[in-house]
C-alpha cells in the first residue's frame, strides 16, 4: 500500500492511497473552504447517550446539479473538486461539513450535561470511477479499501479527542446518500456510540464466562449449520446471520477473532476482501439493480485492551422485496424492536443461488 | 367513554369506543380472514435483544388501489371493511397481518435462543373520517383516543403472554404508512423492547439516587428555562426536549409522574389531550402541510411496580427542512449515534411562533 499525505489550502488533510507508487508532483486541489464548526454534545437522560449538535451543517450539499461531482478527480483547475487528478486508487479527506471536530473554544451550557464535540469526520473516495461501486472493484482494490480503513482507524484512534472510529458506507439515494460517486465515511467519535458499546459489553461478558469470542462462537455455529453462509474461505466468512434484522442482512468477518482491521494478517485481509466482494456482488446481482444499503465496520474502541472484540462488517440492505423498502417506524425507531417479515434461511438461500464470477 | 366489544367472523376482536352510547345493533363486518401466524423470536447475541420473525407478513396490504379503504366504515355489505357503519368514534381491532401472537404450537430451534412470539398487534382507527388527522380531531375526541390507549394497555397487559404494551402512530408515506386513513397501532410485545427497557433502567437509577422522576426533573428544568416549551398547562406540558434527536422532536407529558395513561386523573388526561392537540397542530401548520412522523407512547411495562416510570408521548417528525427528510443511515443505524443539524432552541422558537386556534 502506497500513501501520500497532503494538505488542502483550507487546512484539511487529504490522503491518497494506491496499489502502486504515487506521483510526488500531485497536489491537493483548492475545493471548498472549511468554515467554523460549532458542534457540541448533549446528554440524553432517557436514552443514556450523547447527541451530536452541528448547527452549521443544515445547508450542506444535497444532490448537486448533474455534471458536478466533487468526488471526481479535478480536470479543470478553475473548477477544483475535492480530489486531484493522477494515479491513485483511494482518497481520504476531512469532510467539509463535518459534524464532529468543533472549532469553538467553549461548550454551551444546557439543562443536561454538555461536552465538546471533538473527533473527526472523513470522506473515503473508493475509486476515481464515478460509475463503479465498492463491490464491483477488483479484489486487490477492495483489499486496499480495507487497508485504508485500517490505516485511518489507527491514525484517528491515536487522537486524544477520539474514543471510537467507525467506518461506514451509505449507498443509494434511499439511504440518503447525497453523492452517487462510490464513497464511504469515517466518523471518529469523542464517545463510544451506543450500539458499539452494547456489543462490546456483550462480547466481554461472553468472554468472561466462556473464554472465547462471542462472534467466533456464532461463526462456528453458522459454519456447522451450513444454511446461511454465502462465502466460506480459509480466513474469512460471509453469511446472513441467524438473527438478521434486515431481510438480506450480511455479516463479513475474519474467522480468527481480532479486535480491528489493523490486527489482521495479509492473508486474512485478502480473504476478508474476497468475502466482502462476494457479498456486495450478490446483493447487486440479486435483482440486477444496485442494492441500497448501510455498511458498518465494527471495530474495538480506541482505548483499552479488548481481546474479546471481533472485527466484522455488517451490511443492512434497505429493500425487503424488489421495489419495497424496509421502513424503520414505530416498532423499530420508537421501541427498538425489529420485526422481520422474512426468515434469514430463505433470504440466504436466494443469495446462495446468485452466481458471482 | 362508551365501549362495545364485538367479534369478527374470523375470530378477531373488534372494539368500538365513543363519546356517546353505542347502538347495540352494530355488528362486526366480515372483512379479511386471519390466517395462521408462524411468528417466533430469535435472540440477537451481539445486540442483546429479541428479533421478531413473522414470515406470513411479507405479502400484506401495501397502498391499496384508490377508493379502497379497509379502515373506513362499511357502506356496502358485499364489500366489507374492517369496521362497521354506525355511531362510534374510535375502533380497535386485531391486525389481520399481526407480527405477534403466533398460532403455532412449537417454536423452531436455531443456533441462538428462540422463543414463542406471543402478544398481539392491534390497529386503532382514530376516526371514521378518512380525511381527518389525529391532531385535527376535536379535543374530546383526542381525549377519547388517550382513553382508548389506556383501556387497551390495561387489557393487553393482563395477558400472560404480554410483557410490554406500546401504542404508536406511523403517519405519512415517508414513514412507510400503507393506509392514509388516520390510525395508529398497538404492539403488545412478549418482551420489553430495548429502548423502553433502557429508559426504565435509567429512570429507576435516577429514582434510587434522587427519589424523584427523571423525566419530572427534566420537565421542571424545561419549565424554568422557558426556551423550548410549546404548551404549559396546569397538568401537562409539550416541549422540544433539550436533547432532541429529530429537528422538531416533541415530548408531551403529564407534569405529575404516573406510570401509565390509566393512572392519570380526568383533569390530567384532558390537559394531556390539549398538549397533544397543540403539538400536532403546530407540526402541521409549520409548513402548511401534513408532517410525517412517528408518535410513540412510553408507558411502564406490564409487570412489576414502577413508581419511577413517567408516562409520556414522544413525536419524531421525519422532516428537518421543508422537503428534506432526516435519513437514518450509517451513524444512526450502524452505530446508534444521532447527529442533529439544528439546535432544539431554534426549532422550538419556530414551533412557538406557530398559532393554533
Can you walk me through this structure?
Two copies of one chain form a homodimer. With 357 residues, chain A is of the alpha+beta class. Chain A has two domains: 2-191, 2-Layer Sandwich (HIT family, subunit A), CATH 3.30.428.10; 195-353, HIT-like (HIT family, subunit A, 2-Layer Sandwich). Helices cover 24% and strands 23% of the residues of chain A. Chain A contains six helices and 17 strands. Chain A has helices at residues 139-157, 194-210, 214-225, 266-286, 330-335, 344-353; strands at 2-7, 13-18, 40-44, 49-53, 90-94, 114-116, 120-125, 164-171, 183-189, 229-232, 236-239, 250-254, 293-298, 312-317, 319-321, 324-325, 339-340. Chain A has an eleven-stranded antiparallel β-sheet with strand order 1-2-5-7-9-8-13-14-12-11-10, sandwiched between helices. A three-stranded antiparallel β-sheet of chain A has the order 4-3-6, with no helix packed on it. In chain A, helix 1 (139-157) packs across helix 4 (266-286). Strand 17 (339-340) of chain A pairs parallel with strand 4 of chain B.
Structure summarized in a few sentences:
The structure is a homodimer of 357-residue chains. Chain A has 357 residues and is of the alpha+beta class.
List keywords for this structure.
357 residues; homodimer; HIT family, subunit A; 23% strand; alpha+beta
Helix and strand arrangement:
The structure is a homodimer of 357-residue chains.
Chain A lengths: L1 E6 L5 E6 L21 E5 L4 E5 L36 E5 L19 E3 L3 E6 L13 H19 L6 E8 L11 E7 L4 H17 L3 H12 L3 E4 L3 E4 L10 E5 L11 H21 L6 E6 L13 E6 L1 E3 L2 E2 L4 H6 L3 E2 L3 H10 L4
Helix pairs in contact in A: 1-4
Amino acid at each position: 500500500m502506497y500513501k501520500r499525505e497532503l494538505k488542502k489550502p483550507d487546512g484539511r488533510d487529504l490522503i491518497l492511497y494506491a496499489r502502486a507508487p504515487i506521483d510526488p508532483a500531485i497536489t491537493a486541489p483548492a475545493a471548498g473552504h472549511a468554515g467554523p464548526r460549532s458542534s457540541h454534545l448533549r446528554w440524553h437522560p432517557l436514552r443514556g447517550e450523547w447527541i451530536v449538535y452541528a448547527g452549521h451543517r443544515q445547508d450542506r450539499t444535497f444532490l448537486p446539479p448533474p455534471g458536478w461531482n466533487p468526488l471526481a478527480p479535478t480536470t479543470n483547475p478553475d473548477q477544483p473538486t475535492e480530489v486531484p487528478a493522477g494515479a491513485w486508487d483511494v482518497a481520504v479527506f476531512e469532510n467539509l461539513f463535518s459534524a464532529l471536530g468543533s472549532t469553538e473554544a467553549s461548550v454551551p451550557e444546557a439543562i443536561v450535561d454538555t461536552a465538546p464535540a471533538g473527533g473527526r469526520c472523513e470522506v473515503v473516495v473508493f475509486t476515481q470511477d464515478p460509475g463503479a461501486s465498492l463491490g464491483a472493484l477488483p479484489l486487490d482494490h477492495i483489499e486496499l479499501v480495507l487497508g485504508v480503513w485500517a490505516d485511518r482507524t489507527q491514525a484517528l484512534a491515536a487522537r486524544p479527542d477520539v474514543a471510537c472510529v467507525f467506518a461506514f458506507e451509505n449507498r443509494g439515494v434511499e439511504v440518503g446518500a447525497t453523492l452517487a460517486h462510490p464513497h464511504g465515511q469515517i466518523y471518529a467519535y469523542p464517545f463510544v456510540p451506543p450500539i458499539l458499546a452494547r456489543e462490546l459489553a456483550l462480547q466481554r461478558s461472553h468472554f468472561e464466562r466462556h473464554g472465547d469470542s462471542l462472534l467466533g462462537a456464532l461463526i462456528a455455529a453458522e459454519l456447522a449449520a451450513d444454511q446461511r453462509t454465502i462465502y466460506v474461505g480459509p480466513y474469512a466468512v460471509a453469511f446472513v446471520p441467524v438473527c438478521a434484522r434486515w431481510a438480506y442482512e450480511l455479516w463479513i468477518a475474519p474467522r480468527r477473532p481480532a479486535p480491528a482491521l489493523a490486527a489482521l494478517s495479509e492473508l486474512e485481509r485478502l480473504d476478508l476482501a474476497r468475502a466482502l466482494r462476494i457479498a456486495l456482488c450478490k446483493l447487486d446481482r440479486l435483482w440486477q439493480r444496485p442494492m441500497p444499503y448501510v455498511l458498518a465496520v465494527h471495530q474495538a474502541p480506541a482505548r483499552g485492551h479488548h481481546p474479546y472484540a471481533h472485527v466484522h462488517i455488517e451490511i443492512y440492505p434497505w429493500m425487503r422485496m424488489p421495489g419495497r423498502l424496509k421502513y424503520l417506524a414505530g416498532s423499530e425507531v420508537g421501541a427498538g424492536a425489529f420485526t422481520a417479515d422474512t426468515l434469514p434461511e430463505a433470504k440466504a438461500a436466494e443469495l446462495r443461488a446468485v452466481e458471482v464470477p
